[in-house]
Design a protein that fits this description.
The chain is mainly α. The protein has ten helices and no strands. The protein folds into three domains: 69 residues; 55 residues, lambda repressor-like DNA-binding domains (434 Repressor (Amino-terminal Domain), Orthogonal Bundle), CATH 1.10.260.40; 57 residues, no CATH class.
Amino acid sequence: MQHNKLNIAQQNKLEIARIFIYAINSIDILYIYAIFVIIIVNINAIKGIDMTYWDKKLIREQLDKRLDSLKVSAQVGIPENGWIKSIREALGMSAKDLAKKVGIDQSRISRIENSEKDGSVKLSSLQKIAQSIGMDFVYGFVPKGTLESMVREQAKKIALQKLKRLNHTMRLELQELPPEEQEKALKDMIDKILIDEPKDFWNK
């Protein structure tokens, strides 16, 4: 990714040099300055995009790779009696034995097991019990698809809302385009929304 950014930057510098040399040979100095300012503004805008949209896209893609390995685990589901009680019983361990290992009263083990079943258990309690019996405690959020698809789907939703607000003439012009051109127009709008990153992106 970083290598691609450097290549783009080098290409931009070469393009600036070509335009600048052409301008010197053909037009006056004020026009040269105007062209140069326009180029710098555009390059700064591109740099701004690199520090927002592209970086966040890369983070999403990296997280998607890590989350992909959790999808199989997510399909297992929580045992009917909860993980604590199920593992404790599978190990042949009584509530009293577990309480001693954790360093708490036996009555608290029962409360923790019940709270796990109803979903009110504290993460710190789960972590403490896991450590006491030599296990790692892991939790996470596993998307049904990918983070990238979630973001693009939301951007598509916003794009379709914007298309509905177009006046009648503009909608007719868009409908007259071939299907592939309509898809491209929608994709371009989605990309622009993702790059612009509106503050109310997730409120639409």
